[in-house]
Amino acid sequence: MTGLEIRGLVLELGGRRILDGVDVTVPAGQVTGLAGESGSGKTMTGLTVMGLQPAGGRVTGTVAYDDGEVQVPDLLALRPGALNRMRGRRIAMVFQDPTASLQPMLSIGTQLTDHLRHHLGLSRGAARTRAAELLERVRVPDPEAALRRYPHQFSGGQLQRIAIAVAIACEPKVLIADEPTTALDVTVQAGVLRLLRELTDDLGLAVLLVTHDLGVMSAVADTVAVMRHGAVVEHGPRYQVIREPRTDYAKELVESLPHTPPPGVGEDRS
Ligand SMILES: Nc1ncnc2c1ncn2[C@@H]1O[C@H](COP(=O)(O)OP(=O)(O)OP(=O)(O)O)[C@@H](O)[C@H]1O
Prior knowledge:
- The protein is built from ten helices and ten strands.
- It has helices at 42-49, 80-89, 108-120, 124-137, 143-147, 156-168, 186-203, 214-220, 238-243, 248-256, and strands at residues 3-13, 16-27, 30-36, 58-66, 71-72, 91-94, 174-178, 206-210, 223-228, 231-237.
- Residues 13, 18, 36, 38-44, 54, 212 line the site of adenosine-5'-triphosphate.
């Protein structure tokens, strides 16, 4: 299987077990939704997979990575430098707040080209061309003009598209998206979710999508994993988990979570 295999992931912080043996498979070409009530460990799962858990955290378990070209039996066993290279090149992350991955004082063009030159060793000219292509790929209008602008000159939805462009710049194979549309208006959400789906299909990305919103889940996830108290209690095809949950907890969760299907994506896609 290409993608990520998370097995028995445990995170202990200050004597508390935040993750208690998370098992979840994130296959290439699919969106794996991670649902669960607040505090169940969704965000920590994404961060720990990337080696970005809070300082002092004790981590055990394995995260196997395979993109068909590179196989890493356990990302958690890599030295910090090697993990850092995996993060820049092969595994990317998108957060709720797109400004988290963008510098306010630098133009979008400078940020994208610096990133491409640093990670891929491209020349200035080649990096600029690729930066414009990337903005086109994520459907930012007028990419050439956009490259000259600064983050504060874009709307939230456009900024999230730009953050996604930065994330896919080095052609990663895994994308961890943590509440990527939570801060956006419902109509803008739909466009960003459609883009995520398109990138998953076209680039064969393995996407782990952390969200507390069932509307978002119904719109793009292939499978849904439900977390409770730091462990996955149910994982199955989206329609099954949402319509016919097997565990009482998943049933309760499905009934309690917000469900705001963004217009134009989703429910029809099964
Ligand atoms: N920096 C930290 N230090 C210690 N504990 C933390 C830290 N960040 C989060 N936690 C704890 O880890 C647990 C899991 O948090 P996490 O953010 O993964 O939950 P979540 O399911 O993503 O919830 P939410 O939907 O509210 O973001 C929570 O009990 C939280 O209090």
